[in-house]
Design goal:
Length: 287
Amino acid sequence: MAEGVVFDLGWRPHDGPRLGRAGARRAIYRDGLRRVLGLRRRARRKVFPIAMLSIAILPSLFFVALSVIAGEFDASATFFGHSEYFDLTGALVLIFTALAASELLIPDRVNGTLSVYASRPLTTADYVSMRAASLATVVFGFLWLPHVVLFLGRAWVEGFGSYVTENFEVLGQTALASAVYFLAFAPLGFLVAAFSKRSSLAAGVFLGVVTISSAATRGLIEAGIDFMGLFAFQHHPGYVKDWIMGSDTHQWIPEDAGFDPAVSLLVVVVVAALSSIAVPARQKRAG
């Protein structure tokens, strides 16, 4: 008769605090931040987020320095307005979102760890919403922090009290525009990542859909098919940003097609709403 053998693998029951669903949500959020920023990972995983954040913020410090130097001769001298700055950070955040969204969703699904998350008091909606919250935190900081630097720098040059009093609404406008950029890009990035098994492929497809659709729609509008302006996904946040800030930095494709910026905002909200339904459904099916 064969004798059974019991191996002690060192497994022990959890004897720490049980934080429940709220604790699980916070853990997913913190893990999302680490993934997006490459924290507690190899050095090469940190290079890209640090480089992108540096490219976004360093120009604002440079323009503040120029304003300070020029302010010695003319206190009203300013460089590179808030609205124009979104031209730089908007392009950067498109690339950043493409890579970050796929990194947040695909590894857990491909490696089969979604079932581990599901063994905790955590729903699929919790998982996706916390992943989105971690990306929103980084992208919003990515977009808004340079404007805070510009604002404080110009306040220093032109007189802090009077400048803040007269221009305080700029902080609210840039914060709102930053939220629109996130809402325009991140849900699409998550939607593509939810249906892909490879992060690099998902990032490429997302960038291709957003950039090529804009180029294609311009040609179709010139051919008289104006409703295709609704599919210029890359131009909607910029058009809404100009509406919010009262600026006119570009000739946006939806504008050429005859649509108001409110329509662009509606397209952004509708795409985000549809993605918020499709992504959890896909993740739940995959888990």
